[in-house]
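Researcher: I'd like a structural prediction for the single chain below. Treat it as a standalone chain; there are no partners to consider.
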Amino acid sequence: MTFGRYFVLLLFLAPVLMGKAQPQPYYAFDNLDGMTQHVCVRSMAQSADGMMWLATERGLYSYDGYHVINRSMGNEVVDSLKVGSFNHLLAVDDSLIIGCEKGLLSFDLKTHRFRSLAYVEGEMVKGMARIGSTLWVATRTALYKDGQIHSPSPANIISLYSDEQRLYIGTMNAVYRYSPQTQQLETITDDVTYAACFLYDPHNHYLWIGTASYVMVWDIRAMKSVFTIKVPVAKSLTTDQYGNTLIGTDNGLFLVEKNRWVRSVSHDARRENSLAGDAVWSLYRDRSNTIWIGTNSGVSVVPGDGWMTTYTLPSITGEGTGNQFFCVYRDSKERLWLGGSNGLLCLEHLGAENQTYRWYRMNDARYPIRHNRIRVITETSKGSLLVGGDMGLMRYDEVSQQFQRFVIEEDPYNWVYGIRESGNGDFVLTTFTATYLVALDETSPRVSVTSTLPREVLPANEDIVHDLLARYGLSGKYLSAYDDTRGGMVLLGGTDRFSVLDTKKLNKARSNRSLAITDIRINGERYIDREALLRGKLVLLPGDRIVEVLFSDYVYSGEASHHFLYRLDEGAWTPVHSDNNTITLTHLTPGRYTLYLRFSDATTEALSLEIKVKAPWYASTGAKVLYIVVICCLIYGVYFTIRQRKRIKQEQVEHDAQLLKAKQKENELLSDNEYLASQLRLQLLAKAGEEGVLSDDEKILLKLTKLIEENLSDTELNVNTLSELSGISSKQLYRKIKALTGMTAVAYIRDQRLKKAASLLAKGTFTVSEVMYMVGFSNASYFARCFAEAYKTLPSEYKG
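Model: Treating it as a single chain, here is the predicted structure.
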């Protein structure tokens, strides 16, 4: 083995040799798989509400612990400006300042609206910083203070950093420090190449400077380099809660511990929980000490100091060998026992300087056991630890730190699944085939079976985990769980990792926890207006069939999370799917609803959302009013038609009676040779000419007059009827009557009716109504008006 290989092995085993395992030592990560894969994340920030924001080459993303949403996709402002990739991010009050490839943007966190900050339009932003209320922005050629070019300003700027009091400016070959109080720009060092990132250590007054080939730690007071670390192109720097310094580079993540031990973490395609990408572009430590690692292929997350701490197996043992922990236990001596598919692990003084571990496995020289499959761990009332598995039953010896094996000769397999202590000091063992009541004799390797019982049905691990998490209002995917109520601790076993849940911290966190609706997606494609979301009132259109309500508690603690319930109006409380924190409502009928949401361990609603579903136009209030109006009109129309028909029928009867009576009287007049039609024809003939010879047109007029007289009582008599009776076209009728009488055909027909009426009224034999019907009028008022126009008097007053 070469010296280099020894050195790498020594770096990897260093945490183990030091005797203390740190939680999550950057071996296994919570990756945002499927949400930010193949996206280069270049900067990150956290807003006041807890939302994480990611600046990427594809725009701005938000992440609430469950949902990743691209906020800039399809945005008119971003598309029109063509700003390119989003490279830098800074949370300022209620806004995000975004440094882009070609310009500077502001994003309003309340309305989610973008706007351009035009003073660096078209320029690549190299860095941003804030001191007090002053915003500093650096481009390659200038430094801006609140939108104004600041002087002095170095040339060829690469990066900008602030320790909240001073600015640090990196260029192609130097590092500068600027104090806004003294307005002095001083050179820290001019012996660097491409100063890309900074980190200030206030405790030691060190400035970490990341360059193209190394990270230099510079003593600000002594103005000299303390030590350097060779890395390939440093891109970002931060620290974690354990005092480690993290360096993001073109070749993964580097960790520098307090003792200056350096180790690297890189992407391993064989492990799904390895670092997300090969190059680490950005590092961010949020308010809960969670570490966010932005790579060229998504984001990796290391949970911080919340109520749950996760440990990975390699961080304990320094080995790459794994184990699926199907049973976990904490005994009265505060030792952790983790058993599963690859033996039994015993941990003492977890997290302390004197932490130790023992791994019991088959063929292990120091801690051997007969079989690696561990199924159950328990402690007796006398403090003895018993372990069951595919090797049978084992008892732990405190002196030798070894296990004594017991054999059940009556059982063909000796696979022990369950152990519980009976009231008289005996034990009930459940194996693959049966359940036995047994007595243990420490001097004998055999189990003394008192009686064989029907095999007990043991609860499944999944049910135990689910019930235990539900008791604390949580959800998550684990293989095993143990509740140590005495120690205020819950152990959760997984694959190659285990978690320790501090119930005291959890209960304290419950008093400060929050819940918020982060977005509402309609029909799987569009998001509602942000202002409507802030009002807590949602208005849905008739075509909005699928409504997805996205919410979050802004907890980034890894696998375990709070468990939630929701209900619509006064319906039953329904569990929310723990994987995505999304409530899906489908096919809501028009009306008003209220959606309630709460933590599963709470009794009152954490928040509510008012929902109004608009009816389609044909079912809207206006449409219903219109329907009522139309129906009323139809009813009135039917009623009016029936009434009119009755009236017309009655008038027709009266008309016929009056006409019959008039005809009878007219016949009486005929016998006295006073037939008005003959007299009228003679008068017309007399007027036809002095010689008594009628022209052809006059003969036609005489013919037409005769036809009119013969059909005078017909109310439907008009020009068309006269044309059909005479065989003369309507146009010719109009022309000839106009030429001979000076009247239109319509006026001439009316004139003949009125002359006939005057003649009949002059006789005094007929009433006005009888005359009206005899000459073809059906409306008394219209008849009176026409008669008065022609004879300057009413029909009732006419004397001839």
